[in-house]
Design brief:
By secondary structure, the chain is an alpha/beta fold. 39% of the residues lie in helices and 13% in strands. It contains 13 helices and 13 strands. It has a seven-stranded mixed beta sheet with strand order 1-9-8-5-4-2-3, sandwiched between helices. The protein has a three-stranded antiparallel beta sheet with strand order 7-6-11, with no helix packed on it. A three-stranded antiparallel beta sheet has the order 10-12-13, with no helix packed on it. Helix 6 links the parallel strand 4 and strand 5. The longest helix is centred in the C-terminal third of the chain and has 31 residues. The protein binds pyridoxal-5'-phosphate (PLP).
């Protein structure tokens, strides 16, 4: 492996992030407290939502959102097959059944028409996933939800800073869950955020993320403490965000617009550089969205090499790639439990065979992009 390995993604952390973490360590307050509360306020302001609630992962945020929405045994929740396993897993954790609806070929997001066809009297919620940072067709999805009385929980793991029509992702559906995992557009290491404009949903998430208790460490042990003990009204989880990690998120959130702009410029450079290469289809972004360019996903078209050969050729040349995602219905667990078969989701299956995510992160430069494009050209040309 060459020592100038170019990974598919890398966080951009600076001295201010380090200083903020050190400040938290010196403060002695490591769990939920002032830094998390500040990150929550600033994140809510960024997306324009009433409430932003820090959690320790997007997965936790999605799980809590389903529970807050009252999803449970006997219910069905519709989502996309082209997503990370966690999106479907949390539906099982809530005791409900995941139902998959095929995707649109243009942006690889869930197809509203397919959602409509999968609705039954048991359908309770929808989880659209903003694939690669490109928001789904939310007006159509919200319209379906209104007509069938469904809760819309957006999986915005990869969509921090993306926009749809006049709104930021995080201020569209009933609940939205974001991920701050290291490869995401902003990071806290592990971590996530749930946003909502609904006070009742927010209150439930606040309780459920903290064991279902009616108070947290901050209001029991800090100088602002007003509680001597707690009571529990529902068995919850230990899903809260903590200050040690929230302190990384403060600087990251501040730099999110700069990160996303760098990604946009690099993506534009990729697209222009690939223009002469017939075998490569570049990602399309619809006119009604602003992408945060979380991923740069190319698709092979009539190429002499397979996707696996392209990935292997790039790896030999010191370039990391990945596939987002191995479809839910292909995973052995889902196949066995629900009897999914190849052919069930034809658009997803056809597109899955030819997608490959290339390196894209703010610390890259145009020379890196050119290196990737010329390596792809060599392999497919
Ligand atoms: C679409 C999607 N949903 C959910 C998750 C889970 O996020 P987290 O790792 O913060 O739990 C991811 C993470 O990669 C993702 O890509």
């Amino acid at each position: 492996m060459p020592d100038d390995f170019l990974p598919i993604a890398q966080p951009d952390l600076d001295d201010d992030d380090v200083a903020e973490v050190v400040d938290t360590l010196r403060s002695g307050w490591l769990v939920y407290g002032p830094k998390t509360q500040r990150l929550e306020r600033e994140f809510a302001e960024m997306v324009g939502a009433e409430y932003a609630l820090g959690v320790n992962s997007c997965t936790a945020g999605l799980h809590l959102s389903l529970l807050a929405a009252g999803v449970g045994p006997g219910d069905e929740v519709i989502t996309t097959p082209l997503t990370f396993a966690a999106t479907a897993n949390v539906i099982l954790h809530a005791g409900a059944t995941p139902v998959l609806a095929d995707i649109c070929a243009d942006d690889l997001n869930i197809d509203p028409e397919q959602i409509e066809r999968r609705i039954t009297p048991r359908t309770r919620a929808l989880i659209p996933v903003h694939y690669a940072g490109i928001p789904c067709r939310m007006d159509e999805i919200l319209d379906i939800a209104r007509r069938h009385n469904l809760t819309v929980i957006e999986d915005a793991a990869t969509a921090a800073g993306s926009g749809y029509r006049e709104r930021m992702v995080g201020n569209i559906g009933d609940l939205t869950a974001f991920s701050f995992y290291p490869v995401k557009n902003m990071t806290t290491g592990q971590g996530g955020m749930v946003t909502t404009n609904d006070k009742a949903l927010a209150d439930q998430i606040v309780a459920l993320r903290n064991h279902g208790l009616d108070s947290n460490a901050w209001n029991r042990y800090s100088s602002e403490a007003n509680r001597l003990f707690y009571t529990m009204s529902a068995p919850g989880f230990n899903y809260g965000m903590f200050d040690l990690l929230a302190s990384i998120g403060l600087g990251q959130l501040n730099r999110l617009p700069e990160f996303n702009e760098k990604r946009r410029v690099l993506a534009g450079h990729y697209t222009r550089a690939f223009a002469g290469l017939r075998q490569i289809e570049t990602p399309a972004v619809r006119d009604d969205v602003t992408s945060n360019w979380h991923l740069y996903v190319i698709r092979l078209r009539d190429a002499k090499v397979t996707r696996a050969e392209l990935a292997a050729g790039l790896k030999e040349r010191g370039i990391g790639t990945s596939v987002h995602y191995y479809p839910i219905h292909y995973h052995p667990y889902y196949r066995e439990r629900f009897g999914f078969r190849s052919g069930d989701y034809p658009v997803c299956e056809a597109e899955f065979e030819r997608i490959l995510s290339l390196p894209l992160f703010p610390k890259m430069n145009e020379a890196d992009v050119e290196r990737v494009v010329s390596a792809v050209g060599e392999i497919v040309g």
